Every structure is written in C-alpha cells, then in structure tokens.
C-alpha cells in the first residue's frame, strides 16, 4: 500500500522559470553546469521526460559499440542536469565519446555545447502519450511522489506544473532550432513504425558507417520487448517502470473527450504552422 501524498508545492523548485524536482536537481548544480566543458565528440540526447530518451541512449550506445568496439558505460546518472556539483569535474575523466542526456530547453544547454558544435539528437513523442507515460511513472515508481488521480496530473501537465515544466514550452523552444545542422529530430512514433530506418538515420547523423546486418542486429536488441526483458539487468529495480508499455495511443485509455480537446487546442495554439508542429505525428 502506497502512503505517498501529492504535495505539489514541495515537489519542485523553480530555476530560471522552470520547475524541477527537488529530489533530482539543485540550483548549485545548475550553476556548476554553466561551466561544463563539452567535447566536440560528445553526443547529446535531448527530450522532454518520457519521450523515449532511454531508448535512444541504448541505440546510441549500441552504435558506438558496433562502430568502435568500445563498450559505453556511464558511471553517472545520465541526465546532465541531475546530480551533485562535482559531477562535471568527474566527467572530465570520462572517455570519449560521452553521451549526455538532458531534458533542458535548447536555450538552457551549456554554451560549450554550441561552441564545440556537439551533435544533438532530440526525440519527440506526441504530448498525449507523453503525459500518460509521465503519470504512470509518478504513480508506479515507489520513491517518487504520486498524484491523487489522472485528472489531477492532467491539470498540472497542461499548466506545466510538473517536473521539467511544460511540454509545450519545451517544444516551442526546440522548434527554433529543429532544422539546425547539428540537431537531428527523431520521432518516437516513427521509430515504432520502422526501427531499422530510424537507427540507420541516427547512425548516419553521428557519422558511423555500419552494414545493414549491424543495423539489423541493433534493431533486434532495441525493440520494446528486448529492452523490457533486460530492464532489471540494465536499469535495476526501476527497469520495469521505465519500460512500461512502449505503445503509441495508450492515451486513449486515460483521456476523456474534454481532455482530448484541451490538448488539441494547446497543440494548435503552441505549434500550428511551425516546423516542429508539421513533423510531430499528432
Ligand atoms: P510508456 O510509459 O508509454 O511505456 P524515457 O526513457 O524518456 O523515460 O521514456 C520512457 C517511455 O519510452 C516509456 O513509455 C517506455 O516504455 C518507452 N520506451 C522505452 N524503450 C522503448 C522501446 N524500445 N520501444 C518502445 N518504447 C520504448
């Protein structure tokens, strides 16, 4: 029996206008992040929470392994902005290529990322499935605060009063850079439809030249089923929660018609006519 309560005001602290979970981020770490020294061969994976960053992280590590036989291991919690203030000092010792995942807006990434022209993969997922995945994550994982109901979570999600703030603000910000040379847009729904083609595109963007057989082998290991089966080994106790369902359209199980219309309205208001708006499968 869970004895968790929703005490929203205590869950977040606001840094530069965005709410972050107090259990994972601190303003001191954000300040230390400003001085982070990116390397030109770092790889950034950016996403709003629950859009599939662990999926892309897995694919990129497999690509690195296939291309160089270097087993990618990350001795730190992979999300760049989470951790203690000494994290970025320790990261100086990590071998290249380093993979940096982040839920930050493009404008809030450390300046060295742009100076070094670091390649950035940004993964998007339709906001309805993202919200549902985020809700389940809060309510399934024992150590993080849960919401009293889906309706309550939905209200907070629409207001952007959830960890890492508003999906739409994140999308509006990234939209400005989505067609940049160093930015590769990936869509969760496209990967679900054709994993081999998606992996091939990622591989080409990162400059690897792998055979069709190698790409196929990576695809076989990157299906939802394969990743879920190995999830406890790869991600520990949280594994089965991270690899929950892995489907497109799960929102239909929780959204009512009013919520559906409200989300459609927000989407139109924020992204209609934009480059990103045209790319999202919505
Ligand atoms: P669901 O909760 O809808 O199942 P993140 O890694 O950014 O936290 O995103 C987690 C979401 O990505 C979860 O969505 C998870 O199941 C899904 N996911 C992870 N690996 C996947 C894969 N190989 N194929 C499809 N979906 C995957």
From TrEMBL:
Keywords: Cytoplasm, Transferase. It comes from Mesocricetus auratus (Golden hamster). Residues 41-274 form the Sulfotransferase domain. The keyword Cytoplasm applies. PANTHER family: SULFOTRANSFERASE SULT. Its main location: cytoplasm. GO terms for molecular function: sulfotransferase activity. The keyword Transferase applies. It holds the Pfam family Sulfotransfer_1. Belongs to the sulfotransferase 1 family. This is Sulfotransferase. Sulfotransferase that utilizes 3'-phospho-5'-adenylyl sulfate (PAPS) as sulfonate donor to catalyze the sulfate conjugation of thyroxine. Involved in the metabolism of thyroxine.
């Amino acid at each position: 029996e869970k004895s968790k309560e929703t005490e929203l005001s205590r869950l977040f602290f606001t840094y530069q206008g965005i709410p972050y979970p107090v259990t994972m981020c601190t303003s001191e770490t954000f300040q230390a992040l400003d001085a982070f020294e990116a390397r030109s061969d770092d790889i950034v994976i950016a996403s709003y929470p629950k859009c599939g960053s662990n999926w892309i992280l897995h694919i990129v590590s497999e690509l690195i392994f296939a291309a160089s036989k270097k087993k990618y291991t990350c001795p730190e919690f992979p999300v760049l902005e989470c951790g203690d203030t000494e994290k970025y000092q320790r990261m100086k010792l990590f071998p290249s290529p380093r993979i940096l995942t982040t839920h930050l807006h493009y404008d809030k990434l450390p300046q060295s990322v742009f100076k070094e022209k670091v390649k950035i993969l940004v993964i998007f997922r339709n906001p309805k499935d993202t919200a549902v995945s985020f809700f389940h994550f809060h309510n399934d994982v024992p150590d993080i605060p849960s919401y009293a109901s889906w309706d309550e979570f939905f209200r907070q999600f629409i207001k952007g009063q959830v960890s890492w703030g508003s999906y739409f603000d994140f999308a509006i910000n990234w939209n400005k850079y989505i067609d940049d040379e160093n930015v590769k847009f990936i869509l969760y729904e496209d990967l679900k439809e054709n994993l081999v083609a998606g992996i091939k595109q990622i591989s080409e963007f990162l400059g690897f030249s792998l055979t069709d057989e190698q790409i196929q082998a990576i695809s076989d290991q990157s299906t939802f089923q394969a990743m879920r089966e190995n999830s406890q080994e790869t991600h520990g106790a949280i594994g089965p929660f991270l690899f929950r369902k892995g489907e497109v359209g799960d929102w239909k199980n929780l959204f009512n018609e009013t919520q559906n219309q409200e989300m459609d309205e927000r989407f139109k208001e924020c992204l209609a006519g934009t480059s990103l708006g045209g790319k999202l499968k919505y």
